[in-house]
Amino acid sequence: MSFTMFVTWVLVGVLAGVVAGMVMKRGGYGLKKDVTFGLVGAIGLSVIFRAVGLFPQAGIVAMAFVAAVGAGIPIVAQRKFWPTQSVGEEKADKWWRWGLGVAVVAVVAWMTLGPVPQPAATAAVIEERTYSVTPASVKVQAGIVTGEVTAMKVAERIEKGSDRIITPAKLTATLRLKNTSANQTVRLLEGKLLYIDAQGQPIKLEDSRTEPTLKFATYGSERLDPGQEATQTLDVEFPAEALKARRLKEIRLAFSYIPSPYREETVNFAVSIGAEK
Prior knowledge:
Blueprint: H1 3-23, H2 31-51, H3 60-81, H4 91-113, E1 126-132, E2 138-142, E3 145-159, E4 165-179, E5 184-197, E6 213-215, E7 223-224, E8 229-237, E9 248-261
Antiparallel strand pairs: 1-3, 2-3, 3-4, 4-8, 5-6, 5-7, 5-9
Helix pairs in contact: 1-2, 1-3, 1-4, 2-3
């Protein structure tokens, strides 16, 4: 049951009590009793109808009719079976009856013709738009460091329907590097990505977006011993201009490292075990 439906029952009951004294002037107990009878009848019959499941899909107009019938039943019953000997009502009651009647009619008119409440704004639906990168995996080599970039893709988050960009495009991938030297240790420093257009010029990022730089780390260290591998997850900014058809030609990965000689030495030292104590 909605609040509007309950208010309708109350208004119908009050209006029935107000009208009763105007239509049936004899035998009544006054405005207060008429309104009380109207409220009890309107709300009571409406609740009974809903409790037993009669007309479960009935609208507000149908339920207002039920409330009007319910309000009239106890008022008519009182006039017929328990009337008073009064032939009219006090002048003050008449003024109250007319004033209350006008107020109820005004409320009903406002509910019917007044402003319709606007539906609450629904939350925007955000979806991810993904762009494939071809090829999705490439081999890389820089001196004694080799590796592979895999699972490359570009994604941006937009508002469904309006295509408004919520999160600008980003490039995600996995970078795997390996020290192929047999006698040198590699210390990875840092790297960066450049997006190159068909003319060989870097495609710039939009204002306020950070350049795509890499910070290398392998279990908390940037050192690669001979034969050791390091895996780095890439999640970097991608220029919107590069999303246009035939705008991006290649992606350039630049990184720096420091090689140093790697040696293993063996040291022997003499020991002896004493007698048990």
